[in-house]
Structure formats: structure tokens, C-alpha cells
Amino acid sequence: MVALSTLSTPAFVVDFDRALANCERMGAKAARSGVLFRPHVKTHKTIELARMQGGGEPGPITVSTMAEAEFFASAGFTDLTYAVPIAPEKLDRAAGLARRIDRLNLLLDHVDTLRAMEAFATAHGGSFDVFLKVDCGYGRAGVDPGSPGSVELARALAGSPFVRFRGLLTHAGHSYHARSREEIESVAAEETSSLSRFASRLGLEGITALVRSVGSTPTASVVDAFVDCDEVRPGNYVFYDAMQASIGSCGWDECAATVVSTVLGVYPAQNKLVIDAGALALSKDPGAEHIMPDLGFGRVCDLELRPLPMKLVALSQEHGRIECSSAGGVAVGDRLRIIPNHSCLTAALFDRYSVVRAGAIVDEWHPVRCW
Q1: Are residues 132 and 281 in the same domain?
Q2: How far is it, in rounded angstroms, from Cα 46 to Cα 25?
Q3: CA-wise closest residue to 338 among 273, 274, 277, 265
Q4: Are residues 73 and 194 in the same domain?
Q5: Are residues 190 and 300 both part of a single domain?
Q6: Which of 30, 143, 265, 291 has the most crowded CB, counting CB atoms within 10 A?
Q7: Does the reported pTM lie above 0.90?
Q8: Bridge partners, residue 169, by sequence
Q9: Cβ distance 316 to 326 under 8 Å?
């Protein structure tokens, strides 16, 4: 058996059983709710976990880069949603991939993107499957569902001979700013109702049969059932992280991704440790500072994931600085295990994941990278 203490650090570690339980629980909720489950794969970007999310099969998925789309298509995933408003320069690449699989849904929120699609299709033939991105309150991207201009864009989509208008898609990213499960539940209600209100408004224009696609890990985690929507797209739930545990999306014992690090320096006079996991192993995401300002850059644990009275207070490129009430009993070469604030960003910093069961390394997974 290969133990965690033998890993070259910093190392990204996936607890297989926790990840499997997270996948099964979310998939079962979607099945009970009678909605299409289209999980996001951007958190992990691996074939193994994407299959786990689909109950062992290459089911419908959501991706965030064209590199992901091509990678998963090559592995037998044939129903994809590229959930970023597409840049016109990527249309050639998207069209090539769409010809190879059953469905590639693209996203837009501006008439200029539609015109670029129409110009491309006129020049090269074919057509595109399209979702209209809707802002449900996050404020990052998407049309305002209450704006007359949003209805006009929907009309243009429905009337274009070069696109198939498939549905409305939103993301409740502002759920990450919640302070309690109750606040997340309130965001979840607005996430779904904003799409349903907009869909009803479009129905008066004769635009019907639109899929209402929602998805954020906090909202998907706290609701008992998925209602008032047609498909769900959570992603971070596979691993969860310190942010999700802090805001109430999950318990700490459901966090399935950690970074193993080695103690490089012990400074008892300063009650300080230095470890070999810096910003390029953990990212500099501050996490849920609005709830847990003293958490630091991740929860510091021992190799058995027992929390330690330590705070990871600073990160430079390859160093992490930990403050503790006493550095006694810690030696250079000791290993620590850190639950990252944001597992998606942390996972993206590693080219391989060590997979563990019962404390032993049982596999190694390799994610796709780049764009």
C-alpha cells in the first residue's frame, strides 16, 4: 500500500469515497426531481470523475473551455454544453466539434454574437444549438430578464435560420456570498423563478419549449428537490471545499479534495511554520471571509484530516506561512493536509491527482488543461 506520507509534495489528493458519495447524492436528487442532470466538469476536468457524475456512464455534461469539450468528446461524451458566452473566434472550432458529437450547446448574451454565428453559418454552412444566458442576480454575465432588449434578442434567436434556440441558462454565483443555508435557499428560489418568469414572458411572444437550465453548487446542495427548472448543472459539489463548508453547502466531512504539504521550516520563537504549498498549489482565493475571517487560505489538518490549531496566513509563489499557538511538536519534514478554500482553482494548478481510499493511494488521474 502506498501511503500519503510518501507523496512528493505539494500533491493534490482526492478522497475517492467522499467524491463518490457526493456524486451519488446529487445524481439521486436530480433523478428524484425528474430533471435532466448535466453536471459541470470544470472543477475536476477528468474522465474518471465525469463518468462518476453520470453514474458510470458518459452522460450529458457542462464544460467551461473548448479544450474540455474536445477532451470529453474524445472520451465518448456526446452531449455537451459550453457554458461560457462564446467568442466569435471560437466558432470554427465549435462547429468542427459539433459535427463529431450529438449536441454541442453554445451560449450567448449579445446580438453581436448571434450575428457572428449567422455570418459563420452563411459562409460555411450548418447551424448552432444555442442557449440564452440570463442574469439571475449574480451580475457577471447574461441578459436582464426584465429588459425589453432581452425579449428582442430572444425573438432574434427564435427567428434565425442559423440557430436552434434551445433554452435559457443561468448561474447563481452570488450564492457564494450567502451567510447561511437560509440565504442560499432564497437565492435558489430566485435562480429558478427568474428563468420561469422570463420563459413565461417569451411564451406570450410564441417562443415556447425552452429548457430552463440552472446550476450552482450552493443552491443545488441545500434544496431538497429541484423544482421550477428542467436541468441542473452543479460542479464544485464533486469535491466541495472550505468555502462550501463555511457557507453551509456541505459538511467538512464531505470535502473530498486536499493538498498534502511538507513542513520546510519551524520557528518556535515566532510560533510559525513554513510549508511547501504556496499560491501555485492552493491559489490565493480568500474563501468565505464574510463568515470565517480567521480561516486563512484553507483549513489545516493532519494526514487523517483532523483539524489542527493552525492558520495558513500567507502565500507566496512556493511557500505558505502558518501561524500556530505553539510550534512545539512539529518538525521539518512533517506532512500537513489542507482543505483548500476553492477546490476548482486549486485542482487547476496540478497535472495529476493522487486518489486515496482508506488512507492509501489507489490511483492517479490526469485532468485536461488549457483552453
Answers
A1: no
A2: 19
A3: 277
A4: yes
A5: no
A6: 143
A7: yes
A8: 133, 213
A9: no
